[in-house]
Specification:
Order of helices and strands: HEHEEEEEEEEHEEHEHEHEEHEE
Number of domains: 2
Radius of gyration: 19 Å
CATH class of the largest domain: Alpha Beta
Number of helices: 7
Strand order of the largest sheet: 6-7-5-2-10-1-11-15-16-17
Helix content: 25-40%
Structural class: alpha/beta
């Protein structure tokens, strides 16, 4: 079904009641920045003032690790960005709103208002606590914040007024079945239900590791397994799916996944787009979009 993906996800974001939206991926080159760009475009068209930042670095012309071309970020006024002072373009000028004590990989982080449409780079704080603080600061300027995220930093979202979009694609797995297992496992993990306190439980201090999960499965543990938040569950792929199938896993501070996007073409392989999208939608039970083909999976 053909749709405008950005508008569709913006509607889901509106319905979620979340003030910030993080786009995270199952790996590199799975369309994460393309998805964020589509959502941002919908905000611009809809007149929704928006702030942006990144966990890491996004919007550069070439990947600093492998020199591969990357999708750029064309930003429009009056958007607010949190980024390193050193990567702000000299022309056109942007309005500096505040300097901060946060440090990024490219230097000191500042808040700036876009005054003229241009390509911008986003370089944000590397820690979960820094990301939380920056998002909260941006919400003092604008009602919505978009973050190009990293899965190991979403602890900053737990228990907050945030939503998550998960991007997956052919670039992150050697076969379609493995890509589907990976995104299903990630969505299941991120959507770990809140523990209601009504049954006997086993509180896990720290991380639920593969070794701990395997031991609990061997011991046929029947109590509710409770972690602080979904980022404490260090299980991926089939191991995660097996653990969630055999154990009752819950958390104290849940996360909110509202959509999945797919990128069916990777540098080394391509999946049939509609088949892949349908399989991901079925596996995750989450609204699934092909941001490149402008389609929503049936």
């Amino acid at each position: 079904m053909r749709v405008h993906v950005g508008d569709s996800i913006l509607q889901l974001w509106n319905e979620s009641g979340a003030t910030s939206l993080f786009v995270v991926g199952t790996g590199k080159n799975v369309g994460k920045t393309v998805a964020l760009r589509a959502i941002y475009g919908a905000c611009v068209r809809g007149g929704v003032p928006c702030g942006l930042t990144s966990i890491g670095r996004d919007g550069e012309a070439f990947d600093v690790a492998d020199t591969a071309a990357k999708p750029r970020l064309w930003l429009e006024p009056p958007s607010i960005i949190a980024t390193a002072r050193e990567v702000l373009p000299r022309s056109p000028a942007s309005e500096l709103l505040a300097f901060t004590a946060h440090r990024t990989a490219a230097g000191a982080l500042v808040y700036a208002r876009i005054r003229s449409g241009a390509y911008y780079e986003l370089v944000g704080p590397p820690s979960a606590s820094g990301v939380r603080a920056v998002v909260d600061d941006l919400l003092q300027f604008v009602p919505r914040v978009l973050v190009d995220g990293a899965i190991d930093r979403v602890a900053a979202l737990a228990g907050g007024h945030d939503a998550i979009v998960v991007s997956c694609g052919a670039a992150a797995a050697p076969a379609q079945g493995e890509a589907i297992d990976d995104v299903r496992a990630l969505v299941v993990r991120l959507r770990t239900p809140r523990f209601d306190g009504k049954t006997e439980s086993l509180q896990i201090e720290g991380a639920l590791t593969p070794a701990i999960a395997a031991q609990l499965i061997r011991e046929r543990e029947r109590r509710a397994i409770v972690v602080r938040d979904p980022t404490q569950i260090l299980l991926t792929g089939k191991a995660a799916l097996h653990a969630f199938d055999r154990l009752g896993i819950y958390c104290e501070r849940p996360l909110n996944v509202i959509a999945v996007t797919i990128a069916s073409a990777g540098r080394d392989r391509t999946f049939e787009p509609r088949e892949f999208a349908r399989a991901v939608a079925t596996a995750t039970a989450v609204p699934t979009f092909d941001v490149y083909a402008a389609e929503r999976a049936a």
